[in-house]
Design brief:
The protein is mainly β. 8% of the residues lie in helices and 37% in strands. The chain has 8 helices and 98 strands. It has a 6-stranded mixed β-sheet, with no helix packed on it. Strands 14, 17, 18, 21, 22 and 23 form a 6-stranded mixed β-sheet that branches. Strands 25, 28, 29, 32, 33 and 36 form a 6-stranded mixed β-sheet that branches. It starts with a helix and ends with a helix. Mean pLDDT is 74; it is low at 1-39, 1034-1067 and 1102-1400.
Length: 1425
């Protein structure tokens, strides 16, 4: 059943891809799209919602109540009712019945002290069969209680014109049923007489008719209940003013938005008071306002309350004589409101979905989810995420229905719903489906995730276009979840968010374009157990035991996961960022030594043998207050007159208050009578006027701060003496007795003395000044001040200054003075000579020493004064770099902390006192290089299009190269955990950021690392990058066909060969040697015959051949001309076997080809005339592409000996070609080499190249970096590469002895590349070519081969190969072993002979023949020696 569900899901996924629909596994379709998937059996969302929902109702006993409800659906829904969460049985209920529209009618509400069957919470439930169920909001039915008075009216009297209030407090639910009577007659309410929501009656602007007996009545059904009667007397206006007081003050209210509120405020007194209101200390404008109404008597009514109405409301009553005020808070509550409602969702089985729900309200609402009327209980598959959203994991068909988000807080609730439709899938298109994936294993198992890998199905071993779905579930649970692979061909996936120590069942299903295939067998995997740490300690409590201690207690964690060893109690002062801790063995602890009246936070962590557990939440507590620990600060005394002294002070320093300061205690005494102390306690203000003192008497004062705990320490005694007589302030002060001015450059210092008459009060002095007039600006200073500095004046300017004393009566007579500011006469100091001879000495990669000389010093350059030098430096990369500076007191400075391999410029200046020099001439220095300190970045591996066995590695240089990157080393391996010396390495020159690696094994994961090097060494390796080579393609591509040895081929006598070409008998070896010698002789004869025939061709035929060559090569354009190419004279030294060219050439652009080296026998294409088309294809692949300059192979570095074609220029510049002995050709597999016939018109050689030593890269850039050297390489006879020969007046067949020709950016050397073939006979002095192994019964080219393993012939002698480099003027070549290939077979020779006959004429080639004949003789001597 599960497999069928998976198949349907995967079929829909495939249909979605075909039709461009969104992937259903990625995101479920929302409402608004009527058809989710064309491939699904489409169903539309059904409108199903409430038209009317029940609302809260207040009723009285015996009344009838209707709870409204109405729901809409195309199919008429069935309506039911719940009370307090339980369905009502309305069939047998005679008092409650269901109305036709779905509303609930309750007849004759029952309510008593012990029986309240009708009061409670009601909810309407609507159901449509086969569709689902929805529930309404809950509505509260409140039944007014039995009539009861909390307080009753009391007799009172009120002055005429004032307001009267008569209390009658009842329960809130009874307040609407209260009415009043005066003298047993109903009181009619109007603007002057109104009832408060609490039931109290307010009568404003009382008149004589308002007097009488009042009572309130509760009429809530049944017998009315009467209160006691109270008499209200109206008094006439009093003769004298009456004190203002509140008869009713406003009280704080909490209201819900949309309701109305009344703040009562009744003030009485004479004259009659006037009342106004403020909100948050701002005047509240009630005139013309629709929502704020000032009721008669002064009460405030607020209608349609909004959230912004919250705040502090103040009632101010004033009557001209007095002002009083009273405050009340208005708090606003907001019912839940939806900011985002759930949306309808289409989905398939096994998918994960999320219903979104966002709500707001005050208090913050709680959210619960209901599915088809039933509460959703959170579980592993139903989760509440992001506070309010519902996530359903691994859908099953039964999850379909209606989901509702219900939000609720103290003042209301609301619901919003959405429908979930789980689609059935239509049958998938017909076609072959994949079989089950193979070998599903868990390669990585953790506590909360598992990584699965598998192999492709048998039905599709390549699997490039297969995608996979992984179905998983807990063991024993039928709810499956699905995870899809991210891209086609991927055969691993990581399943996240699992539970620890839980068994899961996994299965994998592959799908192709026709749909999902078979499911793999279930795989059970158990996640790892999680370390069992303690949970949080519950019920942590903290309380302050004293001003300096706090006791914290807690309980044992519910999930201790073993024995609790101890607890750690952390605490921190609020506002600080450093936490302290203490180890505790028990369940409580008292921390002492805390600061007084300071908030601290506490938390507890339990420890078991595994370590610390989960911390508790922080609990905050404030230590108790205490008396202040320090006296007030800065106590000053100011004698006001003969009887009073003003005291000013500042609070005690912060942190010493030890509580909230409630006031200050002032103690004072006469200095002459220290025992007579008077105390005065003031408020929190920081000043106090002490009056009633004696004249001319000295008093001492001290001040102490108060808290609720008592009095803190007092200040020291401070004394002051009252005046003998009071000063006169009935007239202005007299003129100051003197005025002096002292001009400076931009300021004038003014000083003065007070007026001579000291009996007139002076409050301060006014200073006026200006250029030519004293009235431009005026400054006032304190009466104690005797001087002032006028700032910001102009130099050399004439200012007039006036000084006047003033008091509260006015300003006295002015005193004038004038002054002229000084000119700018101070010359600027002359600059110093800058330092000279600045030099930068490089000490290391980050340090440079700067030295200089100072011409202003004596000859011995000894510094004797206080001068100092400033060194500045910067680098120009990036261009906006700022200077850095440092000071020095000697003639040198060591600059450190520089970047490696960076050019810096330095300059120096000298400073002495106020004099400075300009900056010196700059000195430059480049820090030394350092090994790279970061690996190459952005390493990526991609497969080459059309060549599944070739990959391209790309990277970026290291961020911290610390020098010029001279090269990179690519490490790769199939085992990421292998030792690094077991990885295969590929060197690449430093100016390249891409590299190709050929002939990798198909469908194999490889791991790649890259390391950069500079002149200082190797940097760190990059992280390993994994790449899996593609599956093998169905067509027989390059290297993918078995060897075709032709119809005449027969296996060798005496047994079959191994794939490695091991000899089987001495007879076979002798036979092979005879055949090789014979073929060599025949080859030489044929070469001579070809040359003779070629001399008879005309130049016109040659031109035709060139045209034919160009047509064969397609769009390739070749540089140079064939007739410009002259062969080198080769002198063959038999003792050393060195080929030394006689000619020397200054040509700066020699051709140096790079060699792509094949990896295994699969690359050897059989010699077949039908392969001509592949010749051109491969030539296009390996020529003219600079991106392939650095191609190399893995197997080549492990011992293979592929071939290389080495073309030379017409005049090679000083090359040295070293030949070397290799082992004998007496090996059966050499007999099957398909040679190619070389044109006899060019003295060029094909060279067989031995594998490069590890660490050597074949690239253009390496030529400049390598030097002539001799290297030894183990020679292992393996399969040589077939190659595509260039067009050079002839076409070599596929599989010739040439090598791949990689492109060179300077010249295309492929225009004329003939080869000379010599049949060797001596085992040590021959130019040997390892030939193709026989394709006998023992060799199956279709067998898989890995490029990481080399094929070495057993029982075969291994000889060392000496290699030498081919040097050029201006660039050198990496070591290159050169081997002359063997002669071609007779069959191919004949064909090539005919080709030459048809294309060559003698005129052009006559000059070449002498060179060729000499060469033939020398080569013949070698083979017959």
């Amino acid at each position: 059943m599960a497999a069928g569900r998976a198949r349907r899901l995967l079929g829909s996924l495939w249909i979605a891809l075909l039709l461009g629909q969104p992937d259903p596994a990625g995101a479920a379709a929302r409402s608004g799209s009527q058809s989710f998937l064309t491939g699904s059996l489409v169903r539309t969302f059904t409108p199903f919602h409430f038209l009317v929902e029940p609302t809260d109702v207040l009723s009285v006993r015996g009344a009838s109540v209707i709870m409204n409800c109405s729901a809409y659906c195309e199919t008429s829904p069935k309506i039911e009712w719940k009370k307090d969460g339980t369905f009502l049985n309305l069939v047998s209920d005679d008092r409650r019945q269901l109305l036709p529209d779905g509303s609930l009618l309750i007849n004759s509400v029952v309510h008593s002290k012990h029986n309240k069957p009708d009061e409670g919470y009601y909810q309407c439930v609507a159901t449509v069969e086969s569709l689902g169920t929805i529930v309404s909001r809950t509505a509260k039915l409140t039944v007014a209680g039995l009539p009861r008075f909390a307080s009753q009216p009391e007799s009172s009297s009120v002055y005429k014109g004032n307001s009267a209030i008569l209390n009658c407090e009842v329960n809130v639910d009874l307040a609407p049923f209260v009415r009043w009577e005066q003298d047993r007659q109903p009181v009619f309410l109007d603007d002057r007489v109104f009832k408060l929501p609490s039931g109290a009656l307010i009568i404003s602007n009382a008149t004589d008719t308002d007097g009488g007996l009042y009572r309130c009545i509760i009429e809530s059904g049944g017998t009315p209940k009467y209160s006691d009667e109270a008499e209200l007397k109206i008094l006439p206006d009093p003769e004298v003013p009456q004190k203002l007081r509140f008869a009713k003050q406003p009280s704080s209210l909490t209201k819900v938005t949309g309701q109305s509120a009344v703040f009562p405020c009744v003030a009485v007194g004479f004259p009659t008071p006037y009342i106004r209101w403020t909100r948050n200390e701002e005047e509240l404008i009630t005139e013309g306002s629709e929502r704020f109404v000032l009721l008669p008597g002064g009460s405030l009514e607020i209608g349609d309350i909004a959230a912004e109405d919250a705040g502090t409301y103040t009632c101010l009553a004033e009557n001209g004589n007095d002002t009083i005020e009273a405050q009340a808070e208005l708090s606003i509550q907001v019912p839940p409101e939806f900011l985002k409602q759930p949306a309808n969702i289409y989905a398939h089985e096994s998918m994960d979905i999320v219903f979104e729900c966002e709500v707001t309200g005050k208090p913050t609402p709680t959210v619960k989810w209901v599915k088809n009327g039933d509460m959703v209980i959170p579980s592993d598959y139903f989760k509440i995420v992001k506070e309010h959203n519902l996530q359903v994991l691994g859908l099953v068909k039964s999850d379909e229905g209606f989901y509702q988000c219900i939000a609720e807080n103290d003042v209301g609730n609301a619901q919003a719903g959405a429908q979930l439709i789980i689609l059935d899938l239509a049958p998938a298109p017909t076609g072959p489906l994949p079989s089950a994936p193979r070998d599903v294993v868990a390669t990585l198992v953790s506590t909360r995730f598992i990584r699965l890998t598998w192999r492709t199905p048998v039905s599709d071993p390549q699997g490039d276009n297969l995608t996979y779905s992984i179905f998983y579930t807990k063991e024993g649970i039928n709810r499956e979840r699905v995870e899809n692979t991210s891209h086609p061909g991927e055969t691993q996936v990581t399943i996240q968010n699992l539970m620890p120590e839980t068994v899961y069942v996994f299965r994998v299903v592959a799908q192709n374009k026709h749909g999902p295939g078979e499911s793999s067998a279930p795989l059970k995997v158990a996640t790892q157990p999680e370390v069992q740490l303690p949970g949080p300690a519950p019920n942590i409590r903290a309380y302050a035991g004293s001003p300096t201690s706090v006791t914290v207690s807690w309980e044992t964690p519910l999930s201790g996961n073993g024995e609790i060893q101890n607890y750690k109690l952390y605490y921190m002062e609020k506002g600080q960022d450093t936490e302290q801790d203490v180890d505790v063995a028990g369940l409580s602890y008292t921390i002492n030594g805390l600061k007084k009246y300071t908030e601290y936070s506490f938390r507890v962590v339990a420890y078991n043998k595994h370590g610390p557990g989960v911390s508790t939440q922080d609990v905050v507590v404030r230590t108790l207050s205490d008396v202040p620990s320090a006296p007030p600060q800065n106590l000053t005394l100011e004698v006001r007159n003969s009887k009073s002294i003003m005291l000013h002070w500042q609070p005690p320093p912060a942190g010493t208050h030890s509580g909230h300061i409630t006031g200050y205690k002032i103690r004072y005494r006469k200095v002459s009578r220290k025992s007579d102390v008077t105390e005065s306690i003031g408020g929190t203000q920081l000043f106090q006027l002490i009056e009633g003192l004696e004249r001319g008497t000295e008093y001492s004062f001290r001040v102490a701060a108060l808290t609720v705990n008592g009095t803190g320490p007092a200040t020291d005694w401070v004394s002051a003496e009252t005046f003998e007589s009071d000063l006169d302030e009935t007239r202005v002060p007299e003129v100051p007795s003197s005025l002096h001015v002292r001009p400076l450059v931009t300021s004038i210092v003014v000083s003065w003395t007070p007026p001579e008459n000291q009996n007139i009060v002076v409050r301060g002095y006014a200073i006026g000044y200006g250029i030519g007039s004293p009235h431009a600006q005026t400054i006032k200073v304190d009466y104690k001040q005797r001087y002032y500095t006028i700032e910001n004046l102009d130099p050399s300017s004439h200012y007039v200054i006036t000084l006047k004393a003033f008091n509260n009566v006015g300003e006295g007579i002015p005193l004038y003075e004038s002054a002229v500011t000084r000119p700018h006469s101070v010359p600027d100091p002359s600059p110093m000579m800058p330092p000279v001879g600045v030099q930068a000495s490089i000490l290391s990669h980050d340090t440079i020493r700067i030295t200089w000389a100072d011409n202003s010093l004596p000859k011995n350059q000894k510094i004797t004064d206080a001068r100092y030098y400033t060194v500045r430096w910067k680098t120009n990369i990036p261009a906006n770099t700022k200077y850095k500076t440092a000071n020095a007191t000697t003639l040198s400075y060591l600059v450190t902390g520089l970047k490696p391999n960076t050019l810096y410029e330095f300059s120096v200046m000298v400073t002495k006192g106020r004099r400075s020099s300009t900056w010196s001439m700059t000195a430059h220095g480049t820090t030394f290089e350092l090994v790279p300190t970061s690996p190459p970045k952005d390493v990526t591996v991609v497969s080459k299009e059309g060549k599944p066995r070739t990959i391209i590695v790309n990277w970026q240089p290291p961020s911290e190269a610390n020098g010029k990157i001279t090269g990179y080393i690519i490490y790769y391996s199939t085992d990421v955990n292998a030792e690094i010396h077991d990885w295969v390495i590929e060197p690449v020159v430093g100016n390249r950021l891409t590299h190709q690696i050929q002939e990798l094994t198909l469908d194999t994961p490889y791991y790649f690392k890259i390391q950069a090097r500079n002149s200082k060494g190797m940097g760190p390796m990059s992280e390993a990058v994994q790449f899996r080579t593609p599956k093998a393609s169905g067509s027989a591509g390059k290297g993918g066909r078995p060897l075709d040895m032709g119809p005449d081929y027969k296996p060798p006598l005496g047994g079959s060969n191994s794939p490695h070409g091991s000899p089987t008998s001495p007879l076979d070896s002798n036979m092979l040697l005879v055949i090789i010698v014979s073929v060599g002789v025949i080859t030489i004869v044929i070469v001579v015959i070809v040359a003779v025939f070629c001399t008879r061709r005309t130049t016109s035929h040659q031109k035709k051949k060139r045209a034919a060559c160009k047509s064969v090569n397609g769009s390739h354009k070749y540089k140079g001309n064939s007739k410009d190419v002259k062969p080198p004279d080769l002198w063959i030294h038999h003792e050393r076997l060195e080929l030394k060219p006689i000619d020397k050439s200054p040509d700066p652009n020699p051709i140096m080809t790079d060699t792509p080296i094949p990896r295994n026998s699969q690359d050897i294409t059989p010699v077949d005339n039908s392969m001509d088309s592949n010749i051109h294809q491969r030539r296009n692949s390996y020529r003219g592409h600079e991106s392939e300059d650095s191609m190399s192979t893995l197997a080549g570095r492990r011992g293979m000996r592929p071939k290389m074609m080495m073309p030379f220029d017409s005049q090679p510049p000083q090359p040295v070609i070293s030949a070397h002995p290799i082992h004998s050709l007496d090996n059966p597999h050499h007999h099957f080499h398909s040679g190619s016939l070389a044109s006899p018109t060019r003295s060029y050689l094909h060279h067989q190249v031995s594998p490069w030593p590890i660490g050597t890269s074949i690239s253009h850039s390496d030529r400049a970096n390598s030097t002539e050297s001799v290297r030894n390489t183990p020679s292992t006879d393996t399969m040589p590469a077939s190659s595509a020969q260039p067009c050079a007046e002839h076409q070599d067949p596929e599989g010739s002895a040439g090598s791949y020709l990689a492109a060179a950016p300077e010249e295309d050397a492929a225009q004329t590349l003939p080869t000379a073939h010599v049949r060797p006979s001596h085992p040590l002095k021959s130019f040997a070519v390892p030939a193709v192994p026989p394709a006998g019964p023992a060799y199956d080219p279709a067998l898989p081969s890995t490029p990481l393993l080399t094929h070495q012939a057993p029982n075969h002698p291994v000889h060392s190969v000496k290699t030498a480099s081919i040097g050029t003027l201006g660039r050198s070549r990496p070591p290159m072993p050169v081997v002359v290939p063997s002669a071609p077979d007779v069959q191919e020779t004949t064909r090539m002979l005919e080709d030459s006959e048809n294309n060559y004429e003698p005129d052009e080639l006559t000059k070449e023949m002498a060179h060729l004949e000499g060469l033939m003789k020398d080569l013949n001597a070698i083979t017959t020696a």
